[in-house]
User: Fold this.
Amino acid sequence: MSGLPSIRIGKVFGIPVEINASWLFIFLLVAVTLTTGYFPQQLEGRSVLTYAVMGIVTTFAFFASVLLHEFAHSLVARAGGIRIAKITLFIFGGVSQMEEEPHRPGLEFVMASAGPGASLVLAALLFLAGEALYALHFTPVVIVVIDYLVVINLSVGIFNLLPGFPLDGGRILRAILWAITGDLLKATRWASRMGQLIGMCLVAVAVLGVLLFQSFDLIWFAVMGWFISGLATTAYQQQVVKSRLADVPVSRIMSASPMLVPAELTLEDMAHSYFLGGRHTRYPVIADGTVVGLVDIGAAQSVPRERWPHTTVGEVARRDLSELFVTPETTVDRVLPRLDPSQVGVVLVVEAGRLAGIVTRADVIRLIQETSGDAA
Ligand SMILES: [Zn+2]
Assistant:
């Protein structure tokens, strides 16, 4: 994402949450700005310690607000049958990584709306809480913090509703255009163009701020705008590829009659006759005429070398294959998530109970290269 490493901080609702190193920069920036600038201005005459505690607590609450926004997206997506790989916080906020895109405009619409919806509802609740505490003459230390969080959540909600893909508002726009035209690619093209336009407008606002008012406060808009514009361009190109893949059945790109490894073969023999000089790095394992597993170099390497002559392929093969089986008619876009290097990286094409072929990432890359000749 930003090239920097991410650390996993835990799982919430079964979804892993990660923090990218770039996010720490924002954390520190917000904490320092609040402690040394914003809070002393809003509320005079408190101790440095008070401001520091307010700054740190508010920064954590800010962090929790962004997480809540992402969980709203993720939980709605999961309810709609889409698996969420993880949520990552990085320099520009949060991102929920879905293992696949929604297949219906209705689902995309509610998924995209859920995040800004959660932010705006939270802003409203915090506003009411702030008003109530004020009426009760509660300490202003808490009320100033709550007021700040109202503004933050309101900003997060409104900013994300800007109608440019891949912002939430752009996804909502795409879902509407998709529902009207029935053409996901066309809808993505228009929503992405809006994304590029909005990105450029943000850059323009920042430049005008500097030129007309000698103000650098809006520089962040330029950085954000540049980033969004780039994302919009990439997102559209990815959609072009995906749409092409949606027209191709796996039977067209699979390696038919793949080489099979007998389950009773030893790892030693397999290493010599399959992996050395072989074209593939993974092979289906067969016993009594049916596929019973999948074996790759990694599985062999998990066994110490000296035991290879005494260990059979069947003993180390991966056996849970249920999610790797597809029919020959399944389109390539549907199997893409399973071909990701972080997943198994292969699907098995089964026809009438027989293994008809095998599809790997390399087959898809070849297809993309063949069809990219006519890319616009
Ligand atoms: Zn969002």
Remarks:
- Residues 69, 73, 115, 160, 168 surround zinc ion (CB under 6 Å).
